[in-house]
Amino acid sequence: MSRQIKSFVNREEYLALERKAEYKSEYLNGGVFAMTGASRRHNLISTNLVTSLNVQLRGKQCEVYGSDMRLRVSAADLYTYADVVVVCGEPKFEDDYVDTLLNPTLVIEILSKSTERYDRIAKSGYYRTVDSLSEYLLVAQEEYRIEQYTKQVNEHWLLSETESLEGVVDLSSIACSLALRDVYDKIPLE
């Protein structure tokens, strides 16, 4: 999340402004926050993730969205844009605009220096309040690492990490996998 651009608006005002805006903003408890741009690495990783998941989900009842699909997290009074979202089954939207998803199955955030703390702590907690969410991934840009949070039967979340370019993350919620070699394709890391 970046700088706050308006002190307080209600949800309806935010959505009306956002649907006309030339740039994206997030909404949290009445505050509107301008989003920062993404780096080359961030964009390449995002494209690699969307491509891999889209190919694997062809013919299945799941849809993959990039960072332009807005999410609503009701429990946190949050409207946000995740880097990658997958919804399986019938997607549910907030209204007839069909631009605010309510029932993600998988959410992926690509970490950056400016958003890592927010994505890792606050946003992670907000996402885990969404009943439909089964998995949440944090993908590093500066090293080969994917952190995977998986919802367990008892509603607790299990963290596992994959830190090798030869590693594979199994996504049981959508019956797919992500090979780190594919996720980090064309990403020069030292």
Structural class, from secondary structure content?
alpha+beta
Tally of separate helices = 4
- For the record, what is the CATH homologous superfamily label of the largest domain? tt1808, chain A
Count every beta strand, where a strand is a DSSP E run of 2 or more residues: 14
Radius of gyration over C-alpha positions, nearest whole angstrom: 16 Å
CATH topology title of the largest domain: tt1808, chain A
Could you tell me the mean pLDDT?
A: 94
Please, what is the oligomeric state?
Answer: single chain
Main sheet makeup: 6 strands, mixed
Poorly predicted spans = none
**Helical content band:** 10-25%
Could you explain how this protein is built, in words?
There is one protein chain. The chain is an alpha+beta fold and 190 residues long. The protein folds into two domains: 1-35, no CATH class; 38-183, tt1808, chain A (Alpha-Beta Complex). It has helices spanning 11-20, 40-56, 116-127, 180-183; strands spanning 4-6, 25-28, 31-34, 62-65, 70-73, 78-81, 84-88, 100-101, 106-110, 135-139, 146-151, 157-162, 168-171, 176-179. The strands form three sheets. It has a six-stranded mixed beta sheet with strand order 1-3-2-6-5-8, with helices on one face. A six-stranded mixed beta sheet has the order 4-7-9-10-11-12, with helices on both faces. Strand 2 (25-28) and strand 3 form a beta hairpin.
